[in-house]
Every structure is written in C-alpha cells, then in structure tokens.
Write a structure and sequence with these properties.
This protein is an alpha/beta fold and 275 residues long. The protein is 48% helix and 21% strand. It contains twelve helices and seven strands. Strands 3-2-1-4-5-7-6 form a seven-stranded mixed sheet. α7 links the parallel β4 and β5. α8 packs antiparallel against α11.
Length: 275
C-alpha cells in the first residue's frame, strides 16, 4: 500500500509538472507567434519547397484520407494536401495562427479544412480518428515528444501513416550544441532539434514500423530568419557573436556566409502504425 501510494503520488507530481510546463509553453508560443503569424504565411522557407509537393502526392496516394496537420503554423501543409484529402484538421497552440489558417482556407475555397487549438501532448480526438498525421517545422517546439508520439499513435487508424518534417540536429555534439544555442536565442519557444537516429529510435520505441527517412540541406537567409521571428536586438547581437567566434568546423558545416546566412539539415521521417 505504501509503495502504491508513493508511486501514485510521484505520477501525480510528474503529470502536474508536465502540465505546468505545457501551460508556460503556451504562453511563450502565444507571445512569440501572435505578432508574426502573417510573416509565416508569406515566408518562402515555409510556403515553398519540394517537400510540400511530396506531401501532396503522399496524401493523394491515399484517397479520402482524414488528415491531421500538427503544429500547422500558417497552414502551408494543410493548404497543400486539402485538395486530395477527405478532410484536414489544422492543429496548433497559437490561436492567431489558426485564425490565419481559417481565413486563408476560406479565401482559397478549401472548405474541408477545420481548425482546432491545443497541445500535441494531449490531442482532443477519439482513438483511430485519422488516416494520416503530418507535421512540418513544428516538432522542435514540442515539450514532451514521447507523449506526443503516444498521442499520434492513439489517434491514427491501424495502418495509418505519420510524416515528420523538421530541421534536424547533426550527430556531432559540438555542431548540435551550436545549433540549439542559436535556435533558442532566435526563438525562446524552441525546445530541441532532434537527429534522425533520435527520431527513429523514439518512434520504434512507441511501436511504429516501416520507418523511412531522407535528408536535405536548407539554406536560411540570416536577416529574414531573425526578422520573421522579430528576434530582440540583443539576441541578434548574441547570435552574431556566436557566429563570429565559432570554430572552423562549425562555420564549414553550416556553410556560414559573410552576411551570417547559413545552411541546416532537414529531414523527412516516415512511419506506419501497425495494422
């Protein structure tokens, strides 16, 4: 009885701590993204890319799919796949982003898109609700990635598919530390970029199968990168200082240029829920 009570109390404390962290993350995301939602709609990094075309083809190959777009941001994934899906649920923490998605979907005549606000760690959908779950440039904001994976597994139908697209961390510790540092300075809602092996290990651990991945390099214009997030001036100076004093290995790997623009690793990680 004593052991049970101790375990139950520990679980309660862990759940309370997680929920408290998630509430704080909601506040940070709201403060960060409310003023910049429109910038993400027109951002070339987010609005363009072969990966958006590939996602559209991925959904088109499964007619009448119900799709969940996690961390939808300005809605670029939702807009790309909606013409080929039975329905798309655009899900995000930011109500400002969701309002933008709803308005833009109406303007584009995409009537099968619906919006929903909430945490990825606590999806408000019944089990086995979706055929496909997609997320693009969002997962590095997730506080409890394993809990999010559990939720994705729960809401996917048997045989349902998951695609994660995100900036990924290099395997080298020095390079990873540098990346996480400048990401956090630029955007305080940043949690962590994970490596492809990290993603694959975590998804396998949650029971996903048929994993596949591919990587490519994404060039980022420094001025646009910080302006889009309205990064505070003192943080911009700190990032510039880190870039100026970075070891040669870092400068070469990220292909840092004279204007501080650089290149990052991006990946598509695909997995399937067992049938």
């Amino acid at each position: 009885m004593v052991l049970y009570e101790h375990t139950e109390n520990l679980e309660y404390k862990l759940n309370y701590s997680r929920k408290n962290i998630m509430r704080k993350q909601t506040q940070v995301v709201s403060e960060q993204y409310a003023p910049v939602a429109a910038a993400y709609l027109t951002s070339a990094v987010h609005a363009e890319g072969q990966d958006l075309q590939d996602l559209a083809a991925f959904v088109k190959a499964q007619p009448e799919a119900r799709v969940l777009d996690l961390g939808c941001g300005a809605g670029h994934v939702s807009f790309a796949v909606a013409p080929f899906a039975a329905s798309v649920t655009s899900y995000d923490l930011s109500k400002e982003m969701l309002a933008l998605v709803q308005r833009t979907a109406q303007e584009r005549g995409l009537g099968n898109i619906q919006i929903q606000q909430g945490y990825v760690e606590d999806l408000p959908f019944p089990a086995e609700s979706f055929d496909i779950v997609l997320t693009r440039y969002s997962a590095h904001h997730w506080v409890c990635i394993q809990t999010a994976a559990e939720q994705i597994m729960r809401v996917l139908k048997p045989g349902g598919k998951l695609v994660v697209i995100d900036v990924v961390a290099p395997k080298n510790a020095l390079l990873t530390t540098f990346m996480q540092s400048i990401e956090l300075l630029r955007d305080t809602s940043h949690v962590r970029n994970r490596s492809v092996p990290d993603w694959e290990a975590m998804l396998k651990g949650e029971g996903f199968q048929d994993l596949a991945s591919r990587e490519w390099r994404l060039p980022l214009n420094f001025a646009t990168w910080v302006e889009r997030m309205k990064t505070p001036a003192e943080h911009v100076v700190a990032i510039e200082s880190l870039l100026k004093d970075a070891p040669t290995e870092v400068l070469e790997y990220f292909q840092v240029r004279e204007d501080n623009s650089f290149t990052v690793d991006t990946a598509w990680v695909e997995a399937v829920k067992p049938a």
